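Incident log, structure service

09:12 report received: a user says their structure output differs between two submissions of the same chain.
09:20 pulled the input from the user's history:
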Amino acid sequence: MAKELFIPKLGQTVEEVRLVRYLVEDGAKVDQGQEVLEVETDKAVFAVESPAKGFIHFGPYKEDTTVAVLTVVATVGKVDEKFAPEGVPAEAAAAPVEEAKPAEVAAAANLQASVSNPTKVFASPRAKKLAAEEHVDLSKVTPTGGGGVRVAERDVISYLASAPKSTPIAERMAAEAGIDLRTLTGSGAGGTITKEDVQQAVEKKGSQKPEVRGQTEQETKTPVTPATPAMPVTPGQEVTQRIPLKGIKGIVAERMAASAHTVARVTMFMDVDATEFVALRERLKAKVSEAWGFAPGYNDLLIRVVSTALRKYPYMNARITSDAIEFLGPIHVGMAVDTDRGLTVPVVRNADQKNLHQIGSELRELVDRARKGRSLPSDFGGTFTITSLGPMDVDGFTPIINIPEAAILGVGRIADKPVIYKGQIAARKMMTLSLAFDHRVTDGAPAAKFLKTIKELIEEPFLLLAE
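09:34 re-ran on a clean worker, output below:
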């Protein structure tokens, strides 16, 4: 009996993947454990292995298409067998790939379901859960999953991020009156929707004419949204390159926008004298590089410093949900890495329980896999992120919080600067730290204490021995 090859679960939050490419030809002989196709999540590209030895027969899924996890995409069996997952008739599975269009089939099924049940909305479990927590009507969310017919969690996040600015009173009044704030134009500062705007909408709603006979309730309530016109090409603005927002680039763009719109971000800066920090690193390089097989780097030391500070101030190792702030036990520190495929954040897990050698070894493996596009699902899922632009000679910047984390630390370059040191002007190696934190999770003073502790550990790194 043929073995089914399905898209594996590649993390708790992954609902669908992009089928990047097939690594073998349809009908080829494969061994168990051989890599036969590649898929891309929001984190990295993963290889999928054959579940058995035999001849592989691929299903009707073309490269560069989106496929839900646990979908059977191939079977491995005898040379004369066809793609026939369990429960699917062989003659149906044997249809040519060119004739099989999953997105069209799904769209047709969705249309049929909509005719028989106008309120039916196809959505993933995570999308339904988030929608319930945030009181979102899924019928108002534009789906992008399953060929554009299934609401994914990212669609709900985008919907929430697109909410207009409004006062708390206006938001409460709109919720009580069943009015979508997206249909209103704000008259307040910067387009903010005020209680007066909602009141006008309520009065207008109450004075609307009764439903016209022959029209359905859906037809009377749903406004027709005009299509967005294409931007005209003006002289001097011709497009020279177009990069589709999909895969990692698309997810990063989506999450950055969601973070900017949903997080109450505050950024504080602090100058740090890193002279002793630099000296420590130089001494470590001279002493342990040969034994360790690599030279300890600033990122290794920073992860050690930050994990120590997180252990002292657990309120920074937290996240926010729809109804609670959750302090997290394990300290998993992510380090932002720039790759050819986009920004990714591999994680050193339980960083506070590891010595510098362990942190350095693990970080190098994580970065190497990320840049090769071979990251594992377990490489991600941090509780706090560090991002450094020091190698690019950037002094300071305002990083975007990697939601649902509570904060992110931005690290600038280390540069010689004249400062007052022990009452004298002296050249010291200075750096700028920028801590962006979610004000909904922590207040300014507690966040400042956390940042000040990081400053102290960098300026006097021997204090790490006292922790």
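09:41 both user submissions now match this output. Likely a transient worker issue. Closing.
09:42 reviewer note: Residues 89-118, 209-228 have pLDDT under 50 and may be disordered. The longest strand covers residues 424-438.
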